[in-house]
């Protein structure tokens, strides 16, 4: 593993190896065992979009690993005034040991990795959110014991989360079902890849997707950068709320996950969210452990 640009670049073995290390780091933290694997290392964190979990977990994670993290707001960097990504990459490579970037275009993340000489981590683009899905997989395995025979159902927008969940789900051997309205399907190339490599259903039939699901996942209908489409999207996604009706179709012991932030009453009903808050906040906590594992794999 040289970078984490998207989950598709990782083999199933590499994904499992990150998850195993994340479990170990979680165990050590719980037992107050220090693990300064990245002593003296510097991580730059470029944010061109907002963040609570990604920012805090990367920053705390670097500190707990004995290193340091620098928050670099996209609007404060010269990047925000038009300095090219490829120049930013070469400059930052002279100071830092790794870069985490949250931005819009996946191609910007790829360019940063191409021109820089240090590991690059994708902290979310419009295309995918690999760090989140590593934490999601960790949480699923924690609750279910293994991935074998599980059905992962995602209800909502075929967005960055759906794209990464399809790849992560298929690579760990789960069956994946996506329920979304026509016009809001996940990436076509990812779907084609998934169909060749595992079991994927993409449908506008919520009942078919949710039926006998072990994991029900949802995310906002309007992602960061799509704020102006909010009203149109609310109309398009009418009926795509994870509520009691959806949960009645899933297995009785189905878990519910949400990458957060959540919009109660839109993509998820308040009662479903609160009934599954334990899983959802374990999932949020696991961002820290999964990210630390990625950092150790790439920066050590
Ligand atoms: N789930 C997630 O990436 O959260 P933030 O946007 O708060 O980082
Ligand atoms: N799809 C959401 C995920 C936030 C973590 C977004 O891109 O805004």
What features would you describe in this structure?
It is a single chain. With 300 residues, the protein is α/β, with parallel strands linked by helices. It folds into two domains: 7-129 and 287-299, Aspartate/ornithine carbamoyltransferase (Rossmann fold, 3-Layer(aba) Sandwich); 132-283, 3-Layer(aba) Sandwich (Rossmann fold), CATH 3.40.50. It contains twelve helices and nine strands. It has helices at 12-30, 53-64, 85-95, 106-115, 130-144, 160-171, 188-197, 206-210, 230-236, 244-249, 270-275, 277-299, and strands spanning 42-47, 68-73, 98-102, 120-122, 151-155, 175-179, 200-203, 215-218, 255-258. Strands 7-6-5-8-9 form a five-stranded parallel sheet. Helix 4 (106-115) links the parallel strand 3 and strand 4. The longest helix has 23 residues, at 277-299. The termini are close together. Phosphoric acid mono(formamide)ester is lined by residues 51-54, 124, 132, 259-260.
Compose a concise summary of this entry.
By secondary structure, the chain is of the alpha/beta class. It has helices spanning 12-30, 53-64, 85-95, 106-115, 130-144, 160-171, 188-197, 206-210, 230-236, 244-249, 270-275, 277-299, and strands at residues 42-47, 68-73, 98-102, 120-122, 151-155, 175-179, 200-203, 215-218, 255-258.
What is the element layout, followed by pairings?
Elements (H helix, E strand, L loop, with lengths): L11 H19 L11 E6 L5 H12 L3 E6 L11 H11 L2 E5 L3 H10 L4 E3 L7 H15 L6 E5 L4 H12 L3 E5 L8 H10 L2 E4 L2 H5 L4 E4 L11 H7 L7 H6 L5 E4 L11 H6 L1 H23 L1
Parallel strand pairs: 1-2, 1-3, 3-4, 5-6, 5-8, 6-7, 8-9
The structure holds phosphoric acid mono(formamide)ester (CP) and norvaline (NVA).
Phosphoric acid mono(formamide)ester binds next to helix 2.
């Amino acid at each position: 593993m040289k970078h984490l640009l998207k989950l598709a670049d990782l083999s199933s073995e590499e994904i499992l190896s990150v998850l195993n290390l994340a479990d170990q780091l979680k165990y050590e933290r719980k037992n107050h065992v220090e693990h300064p694997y990245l002593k003296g290392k510097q991580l730059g964190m470029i944010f061109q979009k907002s963040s609570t979990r990604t920012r805090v977990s990367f920053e705390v994670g670097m500190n707990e690993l004995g290193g340091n993290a620098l928050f670099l707001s996209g609007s404060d960097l010269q990047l925000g005034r038009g300095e090219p990504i490829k120049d930013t990459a070469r400059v930052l490579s002279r100071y830092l040991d790794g870069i985490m970037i949250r931005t819009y275009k996946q191609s910007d993340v790829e360019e940063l990795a191409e021109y820089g000489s240090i590991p690059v981590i994708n902290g979310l683009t419009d295309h995918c959110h690999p760090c989140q899905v590593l934490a999601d997989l960790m949480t699923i395995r924690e609750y279910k014991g293994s991935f074998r025979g599980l059905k992962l159902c995602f209800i909502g927008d075929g967005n960055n989360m759906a794209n990464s969940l399809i790849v992560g789900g298929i690579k760990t051997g789960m069956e994946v079902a996506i329920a979304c309205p026509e016009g809001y399907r996940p990436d076509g190339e990812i779907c084609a890849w998934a169909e060749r490599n595992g079991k994927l259903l993409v449908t506008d039939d919520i009942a078919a997707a949710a039926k006998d699901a072990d994991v029900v996942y949802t995310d906002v209908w309007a992602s960061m950068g799509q704020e102006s489409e909010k009203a149109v999207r609310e109309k398009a996604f009418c009926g795509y709320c994870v509520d009691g009706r959806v949960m009645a179709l899933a297995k009785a012991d189905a878990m519910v996950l949400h990458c957060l932030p959540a919009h109660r009453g839109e993509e998820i009903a308040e009662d479903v969210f609160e009934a599954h808050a334990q899983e959802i906040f374990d999932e949020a906590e696991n961002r820290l452990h999964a990210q630390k594992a990625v950092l150790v794999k790439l920066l050590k």
